[in-house]
Amino acid sequence: MKKDKRIFGKFIFSSAMIFFYLPILYVVIFSFNSSKSLTSFSGFSLEWYKRISESSEMMVALYTTIAVAVIATIVSTFIGTISAIGLFKSNKLIKRLIGQINDLPIMNPEIVTAIGLMLLFITFKVERGLLTMLLAHISFCIPYVILSVMPKIKSLDENLAEAAMDLGATPWQALYKVIVPQIKPGIIAGALIAFTMSVDDFVISYFVSGRGVKNLSMVVYTMSKRINPSINAISTLIIVAITIVLIVINVAPVIRRKIDSSNAKEKHFLAKKSKAPTIMVVAGALLLFIFSFNFFFASGGKYEGKTLHVYNWGEYTDPETIAEFERETGAKVVLDNFDSNEQMYIKLANGESYDVIFPSDYMIERLIQEDMIQKLDKSKLDFLDDIYPGVRNLDYDPNNEYSVPYFWGTVGILYDTEKVSEEEVAEQGFDIFRNPKYKGETYLYDSERDSFMMALKALGYSMNTQSEEELNEAYNWLLDAVETTEPEIVTDEIIDNMAQGRKALAIMYSGDAAFAMSENESMAFHLPNSGTNLWSDAMVIPKNAKEVELAHEFIRFNSSYETTIKNSNFVGYTASNEEAFDFLRTDKEYFGEIDAYTPRVGYEKDEIFHYDEEMRKIMANLWSKVKILATSK
Question: Measured between alpha carbons, how far is 542 from 66 in angstroms, rounded to an integer?
Fold first, then answer.
């Protein structure tokens, strides 16, 4: 019986280890993948490690993460330890009250703490950035330090400090030489927890930071919106660093004991050296690396000393081009990312200052109507004739007075030719998403705008309908699609999932479809005859921009032939520069054999989405009901 229990225990332990460490092994292996896929290993490559070294955004985020974690750990450990000692000497009522207050932030959901801190900084008009992130990290680390130190303090003799002072020690000496050494394990444990919590934090950092200040978790979140194996590479480096530190911490004492046993003199020397915890040595080295960063990346140029604040979609620019612009101009680019046009609009409406932003067509129309962006200085934009005619002078900005196109494309059907025939897709169009044959084999994109476009076009209506009755018909069409095919409603994970052929059909942006087709030869892209959305994202300058001249220079730089090729190849979306567009869509090394890269132009049933707040609200409300039905399936 005991033997069976031991075998069962070993099985449970082994299973737990596999459960914990297999994902880590997976990350390490795919950090060396030669392709962008996160699920299919194509061959060994160091490409993604090279990308990390070239990405100033990622490196700055790494240094910010380490700096904030080290400083927050030191400050919170000091405050937490002193607080715990003071609490130990307090009466029972104070102990109980402070203990409960200390437990509250630990048990409180992170999102509540994050919103509370954000509102606090807004109320006192503290500009969010590195300082607010640091203050937030210190505040949520202190309770963990107190929680770690308190058990050690409770185990002490209450008269220990008084005995030390009776023997001639000052209160400070009693604290430093008597109390602290006794509770040292608790202090170190609290410091390690604080460091881990700071490095790991995303939610609170996301809400309290601003002005381009990002830690590593925020950058990884942004990168995860699109396929980027650099996530695996940076994670592997962190895993290696942690492994080295753990080895040093565990092996060093063993080596030290062996040396101590053979040489008493050396033992005394090493005992002194051991007073400096390994983690502090590592922290010092990391901080030295941080301080050397500015010197290492120093550059000169016409705009040296200036800072350009850019607000763009996540993973929408090749990091190499940002670094190149900084080298060329001497300016520093601070890049913030948004997830939706509405999120971007709220920040702008609340007075956040950016120099260049990248909204979509309908949002540009809204920003023009509300006088939130300024007209461009055409004398500084002598390249406008280089923009592809099909994306110039569109309805939302007829003369490109306010905007310069960046990426553009269509929304269509990506399908697996091994599961779906070309004839079926061509005949049924968007109605194929109501075909019971493909039950459990479809993806819908989590966007009310694109989903209602699909339904409205399938019904023969305009995607810019002003009729609530037509919107309700489209709503019923979507409900029927959910009932019939039970689609999975997702966001950017749809890209890699379709590249791996996990389902037969998906609604996708043409640029995402182009990537999936480059990864999987079985994939094909179709634009229904009923029409679709011809969308465009463009660069504009807000009314409250502080570096207008530098903003024009940034727009010019991003519209050049060389930069457009790099960005388009990195993201997969269609280039706006005509020469670059022609090259990329014909060259076989890029998108020459992928028809999804080339949008359909001039088709009378294709439309540009226009801004209508009333219709948008109705769509959003109805779409939430569709998603509730989908999740209940």
Answer: 33
